[in-house]
Amino acid sequence: MDTQDRLQKIMTSIQDLPTIPAVAMKINQLLKSKTAGSSDIGTIIAKDQNITVKLLKLVNSSYYGLPRTVGSISDAVSYLGGNILSQIVLSIGVLSTFEGKGKSGLDRKGFWSHGIAVAALSKSIAKEKKLIKIPEEAFTAGLLHDLGIIAMDHAVPELYKMVLDKSKSEKIPLVPIEKDLLTVTHGQVGEWVARNWELPLNIIVAILYHHDKPSERQGKAKSDDPIVDVVSVADYMSHLIGFGFAAEPEVIKPDPEVFERAGFTEESAEKFAQGLKSSIQAAVNVLNE
Ligand SMILES: [Fe+2]
Ligand SMILES: [Fe+2]
């Protein structure tokens, strides 16, 4: 099979991917229309038992560290607000779509631990550096940044196994191998899936550009959204504190300009990540059990 056949196979197989749960889809549409009130969001969430249970577990975990227990969805809505809740629902919905064992040798548990770590780091960066109005959006973007990896693990496992094996044995990051063997990167494949699911635009750009240098992104639509820099730096930080290896055996260090725009130096990034290790572990424990 030459690279063109492989690309063709990826493009057709990716269309058969599962979609996110109906509840997450509905919330996503509400978010876009911006007309929904918090109580509409609460009513929709409460219809999905699975999501309700996980959501309450998460907001009551030490990751959120709330001063009191949140007992129900309507309580959560009035306490945290519809915007935050809908981002959490979207995240939980996508996690549940790709549960179970990987097919290409990808360690899915490790993969999601990486995603959750990047999510928590992205949110903390967004909050600390005041880069994104709703820091919870950075959580969702961080969780989904490597969507293309799990999508290919699901849709074309035998092809993606070649990429993962080569990355591990030759200690080369995924992107150059993907370009070489498949002609597309996990950022591009993730973008297709995210567009299919009609995810918000800032999440799509974080997925698409998280490994691109500023010079490669220049001039491309919405590629200067701060969420891209936040997720790129969070991705790098996750490797420094031991939450990276399973998803991306070798990490690409972001450009100095990206560090700067996210408000960090390489040294301060490491310090920041170390300080968040235990709260990240708490989020991983709840979401990846
Ligand atoms: Fe990645
Ligand atoms: Fe990553």
Question: Would you kindly provide a written description of the structure presented here, covering whatever features stand out?
Answer:
It is a single chain. The chain has 289 residues and is an all-alpha fold. Helices cover 68% and strands 0% of the residues. It is built from 18 helices and no strands. The longest helix has 21 residues, at 108-128. The protein is globular, with a radius of gyration of 18 Å. It starts with a helix and ends with a helix. The mean pLDDT is 91. One fe (ii) ion binds next to loops.
SSE series: HHHHHHHHHHHHHHHHHH
Secondary structure tally, helices: 18
Provide the low-confidence segments as ranges. Answer: none
Strand fraction: under 5%
> What Rg, in angstroms, do the CA atoms define?
18 Å
State the secondary-structure class.
Answer: mainly alpha
Distance between the terminal alpha carbons, to the nearest Å?
Answer: 38 Å
Biggest β-sheet description: none
**Which distinct ligands sit in these coordinates?**
fe (ii) ion
pLDDT averaged residue by residue: 91
Overall geometric form: globular
Helix content: 55-70%
**DSSP strand count:** 0
